[in-house]
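Example with several molecule types.
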Amino acid sequence: MAFFYEEPSHTFGEYLLIPGYTSADCIPEHVTLRTPVVSYNKKAGEEPALSMNIPMVSAVMQSVSDDKLAIALAKEGGISFIYGSQTIEDQAAMVARVKSYKAGFVTSDSNIRPDQTLEEVVELIKKTGHSTIAVTDDGSARGKLEGIITERDFRIDHVPANSKVSDYMTPFKDLITGKDGISLSDANDLIWTHKVNQLPVIDSNNHLVSLVFRKDFDSHETHPLELLDSNHRYIVGAGINTRDYMKRVPALLDAGVDILCLDSSEGYSEWQARALKDIHEKFGKNVKVGAGNVVDREGFMFLAENGADFVKIGIGGGSICITREQKGIGRGQATATIEVAKARDEYYAKTGIYVPICSDGGIVHDYHITLALAMGADFVMLGRYFARFDESPTNKLIINGNYVKEYWGEGSNRARNWQRYDLGGKSGLSFEEGVDSYVPYAGRLHDNVAMTVSKVVHTMCNCGALSIPELQQKAKLTLVSQVTIDEGSAHDVTVKNTSIHS
Ligand code: RVP
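Resulting structure tokens for the full complex:
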């Protein structure tokens, strides 16, 4: 006979936290959000091989996680999982770009030739948003440096027709340059000594290597939580599937990937067990692989026992996801997280191994992150949240007078990522499990993540917790009625400022 859960499942919006005692010591500056990403023998006093400084990862999605977003998120202390629904070569190239990115050193692939026109410079400035363009002999990223042109070198509103870049640029002979291999602080010293805004770095043949900007050095200095490997390169993850992993994994490892995640809408399957076993056997236990998604104890135990390094929770709760509507499978994200967290603790008590869990999808308000952590998640995965930022890979458009960014599901026709949903066999998938959508544009990742983290940290202080494990121990959560939820927003008044708070 079928098994019935008689109680309805719940999602984050149906819960609130009840404050705990806040001591004088419990202030935001004292809170740490450091959290383990991969399993470790906690009982034996081991340290996890990989931890994050903020409990946020970006979704394995075409419209969310490319190399640009990965770099921006690693700067804040989190990890991006670069999407796997692209060729092995393209995905490995994205990973390689993150790993070769030197904080503060920018490789520009939008350069210009000296014989091109100012009109073309203006077009490039508009397209890239960069106000400084390197001029190379062939216009390529690693061409011979001929000069630098910036929007201060001519009047952008009065561009004389057919004017050549070479007549307006600062020519090579007048440029202050750095030699390839220069340290960031030496580059910064040159920038300050010579009162310039940027420093082109060149090799012994005067070919451009990178640019260092004054503002980027400042930004490097203001990222105390950035997540770096032992070689001072940014940490990055990648999504994989259960079909081509024997080819994809070695390519990603060669590119320098730090962590992998089997990306599937439903992970309680023989395919995932096989993939985990094969990858660990062939490439070694040091290759870390998360698995999922599951929504109950059984699913967690299955993946943990089969060697998953972390387990991802969530079916049907993603903002662009219509799996529940299409297939009738899924579970409220809060209930799923609470049950899987209990299973994680049970597994730890039995084996001494702590397998981190990630609550994936359905985060609408910043406080939902705090709720997910309080319910036992070690970190959360977000799609819609990151899709709204400058750094996400999608177009920024104006719709009905508002700036928006595009955001589409991996199960939508647009993504064509059937591997994530296909159960194998010959049938092939013919229906969508996701939609193509717009999300409100929200600016820079750095500003938004800083605000979100600040809210999480303040709430933790309200709960008397200085760390995520302490929050999980101390949190008091209450289910609330719709009336209580309504009472929580401004009510019975006419709000003057109608801007939306998320
Ligand atoms: P959200 O943050 O609510 O936008 O959810 C993102 C999550 O939704 C992803 O991490 C993934 O688990 C899920 N997803 C991605 N595509 C689709 C789909 O097309 N159904 N769902």
